[in-house]
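JOB MANIFEST
job_type = single_chain_structure
chain_count = 1
residues = 528
[input]
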Amino acid sequence: MAHGESSGISVRDFVALLRRHLWLIVAIAVLAAAGAYFYSSSKTPMYAASAQLLYQPAIDPTNPGAAQGYVDPNAQQLRVEAATTVIMGPDIAKRVEAAAGPSSEWPSYGMEATVSSSAPSGSSSSYSTGVTVSVSSPSAEWAAKLANAYASEFISWGADGQRKAYTDAATLVEAQLKDMTTPEERASSEYVILQDRLRTLEVRAATATGDFTLVVPATVPTQPYAPRPKNSAVLAFAVGLIVGLGAAFLREKLDTKVRSYREVSELLGLSVVGRIPTIPKETLAKGPLVTVSDGDGPAANALRRVRTNLDFVSMGAEHRSLMIASALPGEGKSVTIANLAVSLALSGKRVFLVDADLRRPQVHHLLGLRNVAGVSSVIAGKTTLEKALQAFEPRTMLPVVGSVRASSATTVDGGESSPRLWALTAGPTPPNPGEMVASERFAKLLAELSAMSHDYLLIDSPAFLSIGDASAVAASVDGIVLVVNLKLTRRPVLEEFRELLELLPTRKLGVIVVGEKSEDRHQYYSDR
């Protein structure tokens, strides 16, 4: 993947994110559910009751034989829509108070009345045929009582209105009949028609219904519709999971930790040549060279895999000198290179180990060698390279006496072999370590070592991002192998590290990841 590109989050990364932040997601969801439950439980229970009215014009009793099935849908729609307004009007409110009692006696908290129009259930018609009157109240009895009161008083109001209209019309007809006093007028057809009309109006006034019928009266509810603590808790838990997941993604975005070798490989643009688990404290108590003290342990096995992989990435004699480097001090680079050198020597390789960290040398401590003379002494001309080199026997973990020139010509004979590991310690700390490793004499020292018979020349260097010594050392080697500790290194550090490495002409062969926390690597690598 190109540097800086993003291919989105994979399923593996998503699952890993969930595992890392599961506590946060669950905590937010549980807190949200608990808060919603207790908040909902503290609310006053509310009950709702509904009465349903059906628009149903009265049958004309004066003409029972006429067709009564047809209803003008437009007129019906207008009547239903008007009803939803009238029911909530002041006229009906006064009538409800007269029927149910003064409003001052009603439960005041949360009392609410609503009206809605509706089409028949299962009908595709867009015309409304009925009205639903709903009342919510903290009292179940009052909710049903008021819903029925609103419905009944609206029907009565409509019937009274129709009755008054018919009565007023009948009064006018009666007046017209009284004005027809002569026998000729009373015998006329007009008088007969007026009499018939008067009878019709009287019948309609007596049978007025208001065109609405209470088809489903409100009943006293047995359960409150709100609050519902359990429902609120379930909904809040679901919302909390979403919020928690968002918080996990935000935390992941703000978190600069590098969590896996895949991230290291992606950020540095290099392949991983080894993954070394932590060295337990009880193992380190036996000594830092775990390839010998704990030869069957996970760290030793991982180092043997690194040893095998180096045979491939170094491509034989093409990369004879390898610099082991890290971005920051304390990442376990010196422990790694010392154990790697021992592992190579135990496999039969002839190894030279050079401590080029003249400011914070560690090799002599790890191998138990003297640091009286070393790199600084050879460069300053105070001793020769052959005298400064010290032989080390990995099996006994003890220094041995021998000449590097003589041992290079010695072969295995009679079960004994010449030393396979030679170390050049840093030597006394000079006043100018940066200039010393950048000098031509240091390059000549490495060239002289490369001319000797060996399989690997391993160089322990200072951390790249702390001082500039490592870049100077890199100019004198064939290849660089990086060490990254997941416990210490952050993404910005690796991004800066990559930019610095891209400026170096030396080939970068790969990266050794230490301290990865995975299923078979439960602890971090030592910080020595």
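[summary]
The longest strand covers residues 47-55.
The CA atoms of residues 119 and 347 lie 89 Å apart.
exit_status = 0
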